[in-house]
Amino acid sequence: MASVNIRFTKLFVNNEFVDSFSGKTFPTHNPATEQKIADVSEADKADVDLAVKAAKAAFARGSEWRNMDASARAKLINKLADLIDRDAKSLAALESLDNGKPLEDAVLEMLGSADVLRYYAGFCDKIHGNTIPSDGNQFAITRKEPIGVVGQIIPWNYPVPMAIWKWGPALAAGCTIVLKPAEQTPLTALELAALSKEAGFPKGVINVLNGFGPTCGAALAMHNDVRKICFTGSTEIGHKILEYSAKSNLKSVNLELGGKSPLVIFDDADLDEAVKIAHNAIFSNHGQNCCAGSRTFVQAGIYDEFVKRAAEMARDRKVGDPFKSGTQQGPQVDKPSLDKILRLVESGIKEGAKLEAGGKKIGNVGYFVEPTVFSNVKDDMSIAQEEIFGPVQSILKFNTLEEVIERANNTQYGLASGVITNNINNAMVFAQAVEAGSVWVNCYDAITPQTPFGGFKMSGLGRDLGKDSLSGYLETKTISIKLPCKN
């Protein structure tokens, strides 16, 4: 196991690391070696109650957080960003150990997360209401107010970025937070919690609970003092989150869910560039990416050559120790994830797709799988319908623009999409017709702090990132004042 300092394994409540109420713990494992890294405290309903109580007290009228100037709130968020930059290498090493992603990629994710915080720090003193020319002798204004205590549940594929995508707008708006990281990857969230205390955030503003979905996550989503729940994960659990909202206090819900995103490549594209973009679109982060370009549509005129080059690039991808320089793909996060990938690869073979590269587990230790490419994929095959969440590229053939638009939209999902072409008409027609929250033209995964990210259809509700995400953490209050006359 790589030598990484494990500093925190408890729960973080009211600016202190504490044992769980029950005293229970659970292990987190290194997916490259299958060895236990550490035992961490396991939160359940009693711990959720304590954390929400702390967050509610921090949000109360007259509290330090509520009385803080917006500009001072921005300084705290910027301070947290500076601390993440300072500790980027150690945070990245911990992330690689717990998640399996290549260290070099993890460092970039830490730096990018700091940038997200700085983006939202700039909004703190720029959240404005309006004056409204209402009818009658009324003077009307709107006031933007933080929604209150926010529960946030994040996945294991991008542990630090997912936490920061949710912390940034919530803190800028003035909310308080109870975060549940994924049980597979709790360690870096606890480091972020420690950094928030070092930055100077008041007690109760940020709380972090390690735990499992059915106990900790469900209790958070059901809690009547939580005003908003933000969840990133599977569509299946997204349904449950909505149920919990309905069964409790009708809390606001933000969901960023699954995807089966199409990447469409026309025959006028630069072939080498298209192969590279499509490769990164699916194999980035080991394919563990909700917006992965997992359905690669290639126009008939270049299909055969594209398949040949895509398979060659997949075979050349370097899989191995995430701490070794040059590694492009580490292990999948856990055995259930690996087993699902291998099951779907087997289904692709059985249903008639042609296996061009990969398809097998690598070695006897760790959850490594070969980068895999299928050709002759049909729309009704399991590998073209189910979210694999692994390094499996499915290449489908198409002939016309209208055909590929219809096929691209023939899915329950609508998270992301891409189109590669030198024809501006094809690019714009596709971009306007595709049912997806993001459309990337001649690129893929072009996600920045400024650009809203979220899905259509069963890929979710609401948005992360960009100015749009702030609105989900704010209430609009209308104040109307009667005047003796209208001016």
Automatic annotation (TrEMBL):
Arranged from A to Z, the UniProt key words for this protein are: Oxidoreductase
- What PROSITE patterns does the record tag this protein with? ALDEHYDE_DEHYDR_CYS, ALDEHYDE_DEHYDR_GLU
Q: Where is the active site?
A: 256
InterPro entries linked to this entry: Ald_DH/histidinol_DH, Ald_DH_C, Ald_DH_CS_CYS, Ald_DH_CS_GLU, Ald_DH_N, Aldehyde_DH_dom
Alphabetized Pfam families for the sequence: Aldedh
Reply yes or no: does the keyword Oxidoreductase apply: yes
Q: Which Gene3D superfamilies match?
A: Aldehyde Dehydrogenase, Chain A, domain 1, Aldehyde Dehydrogenase, Chain A, domain 2
Question: Which GO molecular function terms does the record list?
Answer: oxidoreductase activity, acting on the aldehyde or oxo group of donors, NAD or NADP as acceptor
Q: Where is the signal peptide?
A: none
All copies of domain Aldehyde dehydrogenase, residue ranges: 18-479
Record carries keyword Oxidoreductase = yes
Q: What family does the database annotate?
A: Belongs to the aldehyde dehydrogenase family.
What this protein is called in its record is: Aldehyde dehydrogenase domain-containing protein
Show the taxonomic lineage.
Answer: Eukaryota, Metazoa, Ecdysozoa, Arthropoda, Hexapoda
